[in-house]
Amino acid sequence: MRRYLRSKEASIPNPKNQPRLPHTQNNRHYQHMNNQPHILDNLVRLYAARNQTELARHVFDQIPNPSVVLWNMMIRAYAWTGPFLQSIHLYHRMLQLRVTPNNFTFPFLLKACSALQAIQLGRQIHDHALTLGLQADLYVSTALLDMYAKCGNFFEARTIFDSMSHRDIVSWNAIISGFSFHAFHKQTIRLVVQMQLAGIAPNSSTIVSLLPTVGHANALCQGKVIHAYSVRRIFSHDVVVATGLLDMYAKCHHLSYAQKIFNALNQKNEICWSAMIGGYVICDSMRDALALYDAMVYMHGLNPTPVILASTLRACAKLTDLNKGKNLHCHMIKSGINSDTTVGNSLISMYAKCGIMDDALGFLDEMIIKDSVSYSAIISGCVQNGYAETAVLIFRQMQLSGTDPDSATMIGLLPACSHLAALQHGICCHGYSVVRGFTANTSICNAIIDMYAKCGKIHISRHVFDRMNKRDIVSWNIMIIGYGIHGLYVEAFSLFHELLASGMKPDDVTLIAVLSTCSHSGLVMEGKYWFNTMSQDLSISPRMAHYICMVDLLARAGNLDEACSFIQKMPFEPDVRVWSALLSACRTRNNVEMGEQVSKKIQLLGPESTGNFVLMSNLYSSVGRWDDAAYIRNIQKHQGYKKSPGCSWIEISGVIHGFIGGDRSHPQSVAINNKLQELLVQMKKMGYQADSGFVFHDVEEEEKEQILLYHSEKIAIAFGILNTRPSNPILVTKNLRICVDCHNAVKFMTLITERKITVRDASRFHHFENGICNCRDFW
DNA sequence: ATAGGGTTAG
Where is this region: Disordered (predicted)? Predict the structure, then answer.
């Protein structure tokens, strides 16, 4: 596009020969040198040519009755450097002053329209050109078709193109770059072929506008053909063509070619550097990206541009290299680039990926211009770091600020709903996505499916899954995982077999989904079968995560010794998570000896998590070794591990009510207490006995009962009973795993209240009905 | 010619 304007610039008639408008009489100073171009005219020309648009404008404003040529010059300057809207303002002022635009004015105006993606305005300008009888002008019609194509109206662009009596290479390039701009790969290639059939050979502009689509479509072979053509036509030495080729190879993941082109370039400009650094990022070579950045800054003494900073920050984010990221932040501040929205967005994402949400949020506050990307970055950052509630709050801020959420915002927000089991919010996101047409996007549907599954509405998940137009492996994985966490192993396996039959290749996550389904449902045989055959039959080699699933499966099913020998036979060193899976089963099975051994292993490996201390101390309590339990809790305190409080929440008509253990802060606290005591009496009548294993001290039976009665999930359920209709099911979500006592108590509660009660804990759904949980006590 | 945010599991 820019090249095509450049060629036209050369053909602009010399202003000296242009007819001049008569000057106003009242400016003697200007009139004085009437015969020659005035010094002010020359100044405007000089500044405009140097892209010093504001200076040019300053001078221009002092000229009383500028000629069309000068108007054109100013309009072109803005259309080139922006602010684009200024071109349009000047055009309107020109009309007010009854200066008639000529055939050179329109291409510049239309270029501004393309940049602004303002098709309505483009149409008005089109009409104006028609009334001036310029429809046959080659430049004007080329500019018109270019504008329509860039704004996405290919029909109009095509109509103009077809109606042209004469087409030069610029017209061809215009329509080609329009299609290429919108990533219509096949149509673009077809046009290039037609162009050649029409006897016009593609020039370097054609190549340059062609290459981005080729890269985008990963069409390496075509790219090579174009490369060869560029060599034959000796375009390939051109920096612009070479950069395009470099970028194309990088997008096709052909790094070595990209590097060769980069190294062979004699004069590298900043765009080459950014293309190469960006190329490394595309190809997942983050270390190389950072090394090249350092070479550029510290060896070649170049200043990073916003584009380069954005790419390099992305590399830091992927590596979670906080030091380098902070270093870049310093660069931004020093070079005054910290008000650039794009760079700022990358910076937010970098801090979020490194887990420093405070800095990410702080920077968001400082940002002068926040766009949907800024909000999306922060929202997904919050969710990734476990602050789903903050994510929802930020989303409210985003709405108040008038920034329209886009599909990426939804992809960030939907997991927040999943995490919170906030069904009402989730439904809103779903509805909004449908209205905005996002549901054509596979990732959006995937996030929606996951949201319904995690909010307890697994049948709606399946409904969405069945109706989406294109499923990828993630869609299948999410659906299988969904069935798995609901304990619906029959559905999970039937879907898995459907997947195998469909010809789509399962990936490593699919197998994690299958294995964890097995462990949730106690399917030891099936789990072993898929674990043993996955590497041969599906050519997926098991990772640590798969081993964790297997240990979990064996140990939960009670085969503690087998789990132990399985760990010993692992081809790599087991990490803390493997041992934790075993420890947790030791606790469930009250196996103190093995628990102690495992606990020692964990202490050697470190760093540990609080959960393991709690497991071990509970294990001691369950067999009455209160002193040992207390000793473990002391170590935990000394080493600075805080027990994260058990927390449960429930959504009632779109509002989330959260409770921690022993919580008496809710406004309805008195009613909740009464309800709990009432339930306790009824439960005991039916044979309920408090499970002492989870109470740390050797206390009286009654006291135990009362401590256990105020576990957060019980409070949330009581609150749910009080605030929903008697026949309604209840869904409560808990941040940790449900404890044995609550699991037992909820069974009684379903009998007393004749309701379905669902508890989603950290690992799965427990659907309680008629005194039974569908997990069959595997968890 | 180059650039920002994004779905699953462990």
Answer: 1-29
